[in-house]
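[job 0412] stage=fold_complex status=start
inputs:
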Amino acid sequence: EAAVTQSPRNKVTVTGGNVTLSCRQTNSHNYMYWYRQDTGHGLRLIHYSYGAGNLQIGDVPDGYKATRTTQEDFFLLLELASPSQTSLYFCASSESSYEQYFGPGTRLTVL
Amino acid sequence: KTQVEQSPQSLVVRQGENCVLQCNYSVTPDNHLRWFKQDTGKGLVSLTVLVDQKDKTSNGRYSATLDKDAKHSTLHITATLLDDTATYICVVGDRGSALGRLHFGAGTQLIVIP
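[job 0412] stage=fold_complex status=done
writing structure:
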């Protein structure tokens, strides 16, 4: 079973704050993804990566940066957090197939 | 525009009853369709994946159908349990590889009461 972990699990920050969400997968998957989930919407893709050093823009990238430092680690950065970024964030990884394995999620609240 | 529509938005059933969740989509191409279960505030757990033009799968009390001509899928849960209370999410993949995109529905919230 693929293992994807996220930290922190919960985070509260203020408007304008700097936040980093971390994701680690230990399955040597090449592909990693960051999504946000909001009530009334399906998961929406923020950024994704094909491997260490590679970054691709998703469907809702505004206000977010990402870094893929190693094959295992994928970070999502909010440099000037806004209340509209209050959401549940999921990381996922996959190998060459279409199956994605999801982490447990990080709940972010921006006051 | 939302490409994956799920209905109903929410559903309340009594323990032991059966229920059917619907998923209609407009994603093209539609390589596969997967149903996930999401407990409140938790991650997504895959229940089943459908691939063929007209496909059926069964996984314990969960069974699903897919009709790609109609771009429609159903998830049946038989003899519901209290632990079935969760949000069920329909996801359509447009390719058979990691290079494809996943298109997520907003989910059906199922509540099972005693």
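[job 0412] summary: Chain A has a mean pLDDT of 93.
[job 0412] exit 0
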